[in-house]
Design goal:
The protein has 7 helices and 15 strands. With 282 residues, the protein is α/β, with parallel strands linked by helices. The N terminus is likely disordered. Bound molecules: zinc ion.
């Protein structure tokens, strides 16, 4: 069916706003205007029609809180879910960046499952300058005097390396200053590349985006001491401030932060298909 003239004009305006938020607060990619509203890609990447959207324009930074819904990610002290901590940190970081005048877009704003491919598609559609995935690590690693913060860069992209280095520097320094937490770390923690045996970036979320990206594992949720700290609002504020500062530095300077480890970590993920449950958009 042909869209009417009014909708066609709206569709033209949407050429500059390919992402939007639905009435239930679900971030989506916009496909086209229809007679009944808008055709959008839902968190599973399937087309759905909704009656209303709020277009999001001029995004500079896409923040991606890892996991959600049936996929809680790591489980920490007292049942603390990685998906919840990731979301709290992402929302707080978004608020700080918006306050500094950098428009942001979140790939998820509540607790539901979203496919990896849709996260990537949302980030690329938003046409941002930086795409940052936020995660917390498991299982517990070896005891360490300093935090085990890891940031994964897309190989062969010097801007991704720069973003990763800045995120690592700010978050590592901020956490290092916190007293009374027993940290854990892998020996090769830092800003690094993680490659599979074929030499490609091991993580799809790092390999596939066309947007300059970085994936941060802030610390070890599965470590009792770190996990206890991560349950506190104080933790969320400390990490959000560090992430926002690093992002602002990335966007406004040519600074590099922590240099990438020379040697890449080798890792072969055992990825499998997973069912993507339907999410109500409105
Ligand atoms: Zn994770």
């Amino acid at each position: 069916m042909e869209p009417n003239t009014t909708n066609r004009e709206d569709a033209n305006q949407l050429a500059t706003a390919p992402v939007a938020i639905t009435r239930y607060g679900i971030p989506v990619r916009v496909s086209s205007a229809t007679e009944n509203g808008w055709e959008v890609f839902d968190p599973c990447g399937d087309l759905q029609t909704v009656s209303k959207i709020v277009p999001i324009e001029n995004t500079q930074v896409v923040l991606d809180p890892g996991h959600g819904g049936k996929d809680s990610g790591a489980i920490g002290h007292a049942g603390l879910k990685e998906s919840d901590v990731n979301l709290k940190v992402a929302v707080a970081t978004s608020q700080l960046l918006q306050g500094k005048g950098f428009p942001t877009f979140l790939t998820r704003m509540s607790d539901y499952y979203i496919s990896l491919d849709e996260r990537i598609a949302l980030a690329d559609a938003a046409n941002a300058k930086a795409f940052i995935s936020i995660h917390h690590n498991a299982p517990a690693s070896a005891a360490s005097k300093t935090p085990g913060t890891e940031v994964f860069a897309q190989s062969k992209d010097s801007e991704s390396a720069r973003l990763s280095g800045l995120l690592h520097k700010e978050v590592f320094e901020a956490l290092k200053g916190v007293e009374g937490v027993q940290w854990t770390s892998r020996w090769d923690a830092g800003a690094l590349r993680v490659l599979n045996s074929q030499g490609s970036d091991a993580y799809r979320l790092v390999r596939k985006p066309e947007t300059t990206n970085a994936l941060i594992e802030v610390g070890y949720l599965s470590s009792p001491s770190e996990g206890g700290f991560m349950a506190k609002d104080e933790y969320v504020q400390i990490v959000a401030l560090a992430l926002a500062t690093a992002t602002e530095t990335f966007l406004t300077t040519n600074e590099n932060g922590t240099p990438l480890n020379e040697r890449a970590r080798i890792y072969n993920p055992s990825g499998g298909r997973t069912i993507c449950p339907n999410v109500d958009l409105e």
